[in-house]
Amino acid sequence: KDQGKLEEAIEAYNKALAIKPDYAEAFYNMGIVLADQGKLEEAIEAYNKALAIKPDCADSYYNMGITLNDQGRVAESIEAYNLSLLLKSDNAEAYNNMGNALIEQGKLEEAIEAYNKALSLEPDHETARAAKLFHLAQICDWNSIQEDSKLIPDLGTSGKFISPFAMLPLEDAPDRHRLRSETYVNANFFQKPFPLSTKPSKKPERIRIGYFSPDFEDHPVAQMIEGVMRHHDRTKFEIFAYSFGKDSDSEILQKIKKSVDIFKDVQSKSAQEIISLARGDRIDIAVDLTGHTKNSKIEIFTQRASPIQINYLGYPETMGAASWDYIIADKILIPLEMETYYSEKVIFMPNSYQPTNDSLVVSEDIPSKEILGLPKDVFVFCAINQGYKINPTVFDIWMRLLHKVDRSVLWLKAQNDFMVSNLRIEAQKR
User: 3-state SS string over the chain?
Assistant: First the structure.
């Protein structure tokens, strides 16, 4: 298993079980390997067999929780973590993972409590602290963030890895952001060069571009990229889309399917299977639309789906690895003096890197201020963004504007009740 020979590992565990059918550890270890193979249902079955023999195995419940969460069975995963913690109450990692699952359910306060429990057991648990700080930013609890502010520069930069995305809103330090990405990728993913035998020997008649994303649904990335796909010159390019997100009936997904030459739903496939598929399709350029954001499949790129790989649109930060050859940007997004903080070579668009989809229609039904719950005769300042993108410096500016401009209001997105409550308190302070 440690050599990555997963099929041979399964065969060895089966031989062990043929000799000793009640060998709980063999079922447990087999579950881990099956999960690594992406065979999640079989992994859960193996964990259940281990628990039937050894009901007090906390680790079986813990790993089952991880696998259930990977399947999207969030409530069941939380139940498994709780059962694990009943048997082994000092497992900081179980509290951390439970916090992540509670976030999926939108239970932010309970999630932050779970992260705090992980930190009470293991104060230097950087993953839990980074997740806690990010979700405190989501609810605009700036006072609690301030309590840990001295720890922020060291998170993910002192040898331990954390999610690079979590720290982006918490400090303006491009050198540390690059280091976090490098540390995260090096710790979690083995990087392979593209096999020479599969590189094209000459320029193909039509270059094959593959777009990879879990977000081909009603999502900003999908809204923007659909127009790009549709406008590719089909005499020069053949366009593939590889979707590893959940099934969706969204209108934008149907548009994407029509905008590409070949659409492939690969949500049930492992990263290795997707790589084999892309190589079989002879993709020349693979475009990663996700980066270090939610539901990414980084292994597709670290193990090389194509000879040329590009980071674009979904994560306009560095991936921190040589596996991504380029990033598409503009000189506002990445000023020339900031190029050094990117591991990728920068492809500069002449104007904006961000495409505006020419098929999107502005509704003719324009609601009144009253219908939107806004006062009638006022000037409306508006920022429809997630809570983590608002910080005290920005909020100070907004409050000064409200003071300066008579009969003005600030219209924000009520992402969660805690955000609303905390921003009202911050506004009253100012």
Answer: CCCCCHHHHHHHHHHHHHHCCCCHHHHHHHHHHHHHCCCHHHHHHHHHHHHHHCCCCHHHHHHHHHHHHHCCCHHHHHHHHHHHHHHCCCCHHHHHHHHHHHHHCCCHHHHHHHHHHHHHHCCCCHHHHHHHHHHHHHCCCHHHHHHCHHHHHHCCCCCCCCCHHHHCCCCCCHHHHHHHHHHHHHHHCCCCCCCHHHCCCCCCCCEEEEEEECCCCCCHHHHHHHHHHHHCCCCCEEEEEEECCCCCCCHHHHHHHHHCCEEEECCCCCHHHHHHHHHHCCCCEEEECCCCCCCCCCHHHHCCCCCEEEECCCCCCCCCCCCCCEEEECCCCCCHHHHHHCCCEEEECCCCCCCCCCCCCCCCCCCCCCCCCCCCCCEEEEECCCHHHCCHHHHHHHHHHHHHCCCEEEEECCCCHHHHHHHHHHHHHC
Q: Give, rounded to a whole angstrom, the gap between the first and last alpha carbons of the chain.
A: 59
Query: pTM higher than 0.85, yes or no?
Result: yes
Q: What is the pLDDT of residues 296-335, one digit of tens each?
A: 999 999 999 999 999 999 999 999 999 999 999 999 999 9
Comparing CA positions, the residue from 389, 384, 398 lying closest to residue 429 is 398
Interstrand relation of 207-213 and 379-383 (parallel, antiparallel or unpaired): unpaired
Identify whether the C-beta of residue 310 lies closer than 8 Å to the C-beta of residue 287: yes
- Tell me how far apart the alpha carbons of residues 399 and 169 are, in angstroms, rounded to a whole number: 20
Euclidean distance between CA atoms 240 and 208, whole angstroms: 7
Picking from 176, 386, 166, the residue whose alpha carbon sits closest to that of residue 292 is: 166
Instruction: Identify the burial level of 213 via C-beta atoms within 10 angstroms of its C-beta, where 0-12 means exposed, 13-18 middle and 19 or more buried.
Output: buried
Percent of the chain clearing pLDDT 90 (strictly above) = 91
The token pair that represents 132 in the structure block: 């806690």
Angle between helices 74-87 and 92-104 (to 10 degrees): 160
